[in-house]
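Here is one chain, start to finish.
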Amino acid sequence: MKHEYKTIGIASGLVALNIALMSLIAFTPLAAVMEYVFSYLILGVLFFGALLTGGVWIAKSGIRNNNKTKSGLGVGILQIAYGLFGGGVLSIASADLMPVIIGVTFVVTLGLTVASAALVYFSGKDFSNWQRYSNYLFLGVIGLSLFGTFIPGFGVIAFVLALAGFLTYLVYEIYVLREQQASPLMNGLGIYVAFMGVFIQILQMVLRYYLEE
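Its structure:
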């Protein structure tokens, strides 16, 4: 259990820091960055995807080589990526509504994470292929986003695929935790990336719900 506690502690710390960062960015001019890059859906997806992919690669490479500077740079890129995206979404809401939206989003995301953990731990099944499945889903997001740039309906499907991709990746990382196939730092990073991916997708839905209420 010590391995699990360390992993969850690392992931939780990164998540808490990122939520705080996006909350701050929402009140700054940086919140407009995502609105600008997502003026064309495919450009926004490629921009955000490049930051996430690059951040993960740099961070994991730094961890593997025990290079704290490199791993810190990778984590910083990930924090900025999610911070810009989340901050851009939150900037649409009023200041008094923002804590409610963040709170509801966190509870829903945590619920999905607990459900994913229950699936992994109680089923005892092999989820080692789910990382590959998540990659396929993210490739689908890119393809649909290209069409969604011109036909809005495809954008909705791309959104659903992105949520499914992050959930699938979350299940995979929880499986890695169960099998203890990676160090707490490496696994904690993976769970953080997956959790925040789900978080920002849910955040958009919660925001829309409250704005339309």
